[in-house]
Amino acid sequence: MPAEADGQSETPPATFASHRVIAMHRPALLLAALALPLLAGGCAPVNRLVDHWALGAMSDLAARGQSAPAGRLPFESAEELERLTRPADGEVLEVRSLPQPRPIDDVRLTQEILTFPSAIRLLGESSNQAVAHVFRRGAWGERPVLLWVPGVSIGFGDWPGLTEYFTYVLEAGADVVLFEPPYHFSRAPAGTGSGEVFLSTDYADHLSAFAQEISDLRRLTRWLRAQGVQVLGAFGSSMGGGVVMRTATFDPAFDFLVLKQPLVDWNTVLRTPEMAGARSRIEAQGIAPETMARAYRALDSRGDRPKLPAARISLLYGRFDQVAPEAQALSLAEAWGISDVTAYPRGHALIMWGGLPYRDVPRIVARHLDALRLSRRGPDSHAR
User: Among 153, 162, 140, which Cα is nearest to 95's?
Assistant: First the structure.
């Protein structure tokens, strides 16, 4: 059974907006503000209602795009996706380091931006340069690294919440590398919000964005290892959790995973009533429902095995989640044999409300780091 997180946190209430698309529906935010006492206690109806509004906002964005016939789909199976995203043999990644324009106020940190050309090209040229933000204390290899992969619509508007999170993880003993998903942050085309084009582009390009993210991550993790990083973990939230999971089934890239409300089944999302507009637009591009379902199943990694032990994977989810539902989280835990499972009395969009993950994620990271240190010292380490 998953551990139940209580509704209170020893940290101040979080200001981090886990899904900025809900800002399109101001009544949801007003309702949430009026219902703060209920939220603190884990009010199921409020959490579910805000999630339904969030799904409607996602569908509105998706329905804005053109309905011209989509091009050839980049993949329709996990095998095709793996081949498409596989790094070239002997590739030497050409990574540039740039100054960090949004630094954390900490003189101990080396703060920079890493960028390199993506191997998979999208229609939006701005997304074809991979970008990662580095926050580290010391040289590469001196400390473990946590690769941070956020979800749909997270962007620079969420920067204060993100950097607060990073500060806690840095104190827990790991450096942080934040990866920008395709069409998000600085990779969003000019004049668009973070993640908008990911949802509104044509279906073939939408799938290619998933492939670009997985390809970028596979190449970035290899580069980090080549710099001397000995312990590399990943934190994936929502869509980022699903992408991290799929990456972990393709490569032995990670020593541990922290998955927060991972969105692994996009077919479930597309079947919700709120996403009818998005489904209609995809079908208007000449994509049959069974083709759409087949392509999204390629992203669902529950039927494959991760290339790390289940004991090094932690799962956090919301019991009232309507985007990545509880049943999906529990089926993942069963499929992968994950025993470290924490349930929050929250939905998807409001899981950060009250700051519970701020408290728990750094503790989980520290616990994984301690376990890895013990395992690498050998069986006699407890006696010394």
Answer: 140
Q: Cα separation of 305 and 248, whole Å?
A: 8
Q: Which of 175, 326, 332 is nearest to 245 (CA)?
A: 332
DSSP string, 258-289: EEES----HHHHHTSGGGHHHHHHHHHTT--H
Quote the crossing angle between the two packed helices 276-284 and 44-63, to the nearest 10°.
20
- Report yes or no: 193 and 23 within 8 Å, Cβ to Cβ: no
Residue 190 has a pLDDT of 96
Q: Which of 2-6, 122-126, 254-258, 283-287 has the least mean pLDDT?
A: 2-6
Give the SS3 label for residue 245. Answer: helix
The pTM of this model reads 0.91
- The DSSP element (H or E) to which 236 belongs, if any, is strand 232-237
Higher pLDDT, 2 or 224: 224
HEC string for 191-207 = CCCCCHHHHHCCHHHHH
Share of the chain above pLDDT 70, in %: 88
